[in-house]
Structures are given as C-alpha cells and as structure tokens.
C-alpha cells in the first residue's frame, strides 16, 4: 500500500504516525494492498480556501477527503489482476486540529489520528449526514482508533523491551557488537 504524505502546514508532527494510522484503517477496512493514498497537511489559509472552493463553506476545517471518482481507472479491462487504485487525497489542518485536541483533552497526534481515520472512511464512502450514517461511521471510527492505539502501544512496549534486552546482552558481551547499541546511540 502506497501512502504519500507531505507536510506544508508549518507544524511539526509525527508524519510516520499519521501514515501508520491511515495504513491501519485501510488494512482494517480490507482495502487492497495495491491502493494508493495521498495525505497533505496544510495551514489555516490553505484549508479555508479548499473548504470554501469545494464545499462552499467559510473558514478552515479539520479534514477534507477528496475521493477519486473512478477507482478502476488505473486498470486495463483485460488485465488479470487489479492494478494500483488511487483512493484519493486527505487534507489535514494541524493548526485547526490543535484547538480541537485541546478542547477534547487529548494530544494533537491523537486528534490527527482520529482525523486520518475519519478521512479514510470518507474516502471509502462513509458519511455522517444522516443520524444512522453517523452512528455507523463513528462507531467504526471509534473501533478502528481503539485497536490502532492498542496495537501501537504494544509495539512500542516490544521495541522498548528489545532495546533494553540488547543493552543488557551487549553489556554482558553476549551479542555481536553491531547489534548491541553503543553508548553514543543509547536512548
């Protein structure tokens, strides 16, 4: 799965973490591994311009999703297997999201993960215009985010344990020098 990210927002964020959230959501939704997604982080002015131009609404917003109209356009009709599918573009506004995160009582990255999953679901055709649609989409979004956080925390614990094990084994001379972290690179 190809996920490209570009940060033009002027806000430093953990871009690989946003990609991980998008990849996790796409995997959970069983989207083909040949799919392609673009994520763009923009400033308030750029987001306000997009919001007005495409939705005819004033001011910036947190996330916008631009799905591709023809998902099968990248495949020849006689091709045996589907080719890469461009899902579309997600546009996130970290400055707008920062205020939302503060009001919600969580971190900017938690908010950006939420917005990424929300945007991916929009790209896949989910909406929240009607109460039933909103319940379905937000329940799915909440489940995906909870699973993402759980798996991410477990992976971080395993990585930390691996680092500690390597330090201990290296100090005891039980691992090769190139595997054991040296004092200059210790965290």
Describe this structure in words.
The longest helix is centred in the C-terminal third of the chain and has 41 residues, at 131-171. Residues 70-76 and 182-187 have low confidence and may be disordered. Strand 1, helix 1 and strand 2 form a beta-alpha-beta unit. The chain has 187 residues and is α/β, with parallel strands linked by helices. It has 5 helices and 4 strands; from the N terminus they run βαβαββααα. The relative contact order is 0.14. Helix content is 50%, strand content 14%. It is globular, with a radius of gyration of 20 Å. A 4-stranded mixed β-sheet has the order 1-2-4-3, sandwiched between helices.
Concise account of the structure shown:
The protein has 187 residues and is of the alpha/beta class. Helices cover 50% and strands 14% of the residues.
